[in-house]
Amino acid sequence: MREYQERYLALLRRASALSGPSLEEMTPDEFVEEAARTAGEEAKIVEQGTELLRRFLFPLLDDILSATREEVDSLLEFASKLMSGDVGLHYRITMALVSYARHTGDRDLLIRELYEMGMSLYNMQSMLSPNRIRLYNTRMRLCFTECASHFERDYDEITDPETRGYIHRSMGNIPLSYDTGDEKSVKAKLEAATRSIRILSDPDVRAKTPSLPWDRYLYASHQQRTALLGYLRSGNAGHEVFAQVLESAQIVQEKQMRDMRERGEPLQPRWRYAYLAALYHSGAVHLTELLDGIYGLCGSCADDDFGSQSAFAHLGAPAYYMEYSKKLDDRRLDGEVASRIKRLTDRMCRWLVRMPGNGINETAMFALRQFLYAYRELPGCMPFIELLQNTFAAWLPTGYIRQWIAGRTARLITGWAIDDAAGRLVGFLDTGDEAEVARRRGEIMDFAEKAGVLYDTGMIHFKNLESAACRGIFEEESELMRLHAHCGAQLLAAHPSTRGFSEIALGHHCFYDGKGGYPVDFSLWDSKARPMISIVALVDTLASTIPETASRYRPAVPLERAFAEIEEGSGTRFSPHAVALLTPRRREVLRESLRVWRKEACLDMYRRREGI
After folding, report:
1. Is 226 exposed, middle or buried (CB count within 10 Å of its CB: 0-12, 13-18, 19+)?
2. Are the beta carbons of 217 and 200 closer than 8 angstroms?
3. So what's the pLDDT on residue 179?
4. By the 8 A CB rule, do 405 and 602 touch?
5. Which CATH class for the 393-611 domain?
6. 255 in helix, strand or coil?
7. Domain coordinates of the chain in residue numbers?
8. What is the CB neighbour count within 10 angstroms for residue 296?
9. Tens digit of pLDDT for each residue in 347-374?
């Protein structure tokens, strides 16, 4: 590799190590100071990494067709080390190498890089799961399908076993690119997985390249077919799907049992669940037996185990328990289900709060989002807003501080709005006139505080993207993160206690004049929540001034600059009526409040963690 590549990887390691200050043996004041220092160091790392790429890498990628083979080889080695730490940069490099391979006619390189590009797209799409937004599926499918097409086109001409391996891996990954939300997609996913299984099982194909790990590839394809359980849960699948999913689940289960007997490896709870679920969908076990089995899996890993299987036991399995519990018809079991959900929720929060540092890998992040989307607010269970706050306090303390301060800021500004222009709030929360707005002042301010806490919930999909890299954000990533408005709205809308805040999460980046911002399919002027969305838009800008809550992609800005940005955007980005609330005297109140709230928010975060 080149020197700049080694230096960039060293920066990436430094960035990864800066997971934020530990709360152990640290006072709240020390935590705030250390968090601000860490954010400042992260900003310097981003500056250094961006400069390295701008000087050395981007010119090469821009002129990739003129690259020497030595330069290409260095890119290949560099990219191989980026997948787990900087998927966005990995994607940029693989795109360039695909172009180079097409231009030079390097078939082996093209096959490899099509596979690598497909995996980059898969990792970016995974950030959106379990939300149903499908941004990268088609591009992912094109990469894997083109790579797999070489099996029919020129497989026998290819002599490199590794290249043949990429063909089979791509063929096995095509099912990843299909959603399971409709019958057509399920059929295509099933056909792709079954075709891969058939080819991988063919002794004549295996004989052509005996050195390849055929059984591992075959096992992965059976896992892919087992993943169609998600569609079976919808209750719309036909007998063919049931039979093939059950077959694959049985094969996966048998391998798990064999590995346990021969190598002493424990049964993985993820695939034990899959086998149980397949038995249920085939009619072999009752729903109550399935729920009991899943509940047992939730306790199969210790609270001080933070591996991928433990993430499934603490997050994924409880999510499946809650999903399947919705199918129960016997209302006499509601109390037991609620009691179990409460225990699973408390255990999940304890596991998060004990996690070393404040980082969490993408596998665990997916399982966490799965838990949040599947959560059930049954009587006696934790309200969803409390669950979100506990999750942030445990997993991302600086994120909790930002939410807490944003909530207080929204409450304060809403009080000013009621004082100055109560008429502009008439209709909000079904108020009938100014007198009712004034009479319900406390209720409206309580709502505003919760709105400040919740409006950025969708960023839970992209926290790893925010903190993973050591460079500026790419346009592709910026577009991806804009989806946090949709993701947050859908997550909040799924739960009774937060449903009323969904439109605020969706619209807080929309421009007041309708000529900018996002999402473009949301009409601010048609929303009854418009007065609160206008206030939260100010809050979002003001929240960016808190040093300890900054990220590599959202650096802290001075408060005066935030005020200037709000003033400049009055009438375009921001409501002029909301901007008018920030008089010079009130700006001083905000300045002092933000100073005090930083410590109060940190103290509250510590108290919440202790409660967990």
Report:
1. buried
2. yes
3. 78
4. no
5. mainly alpha
6. helix
7. 63-204, 244-382, 393-611
8. 13
9. 999 999 988 764 567 788 899 999 999 9
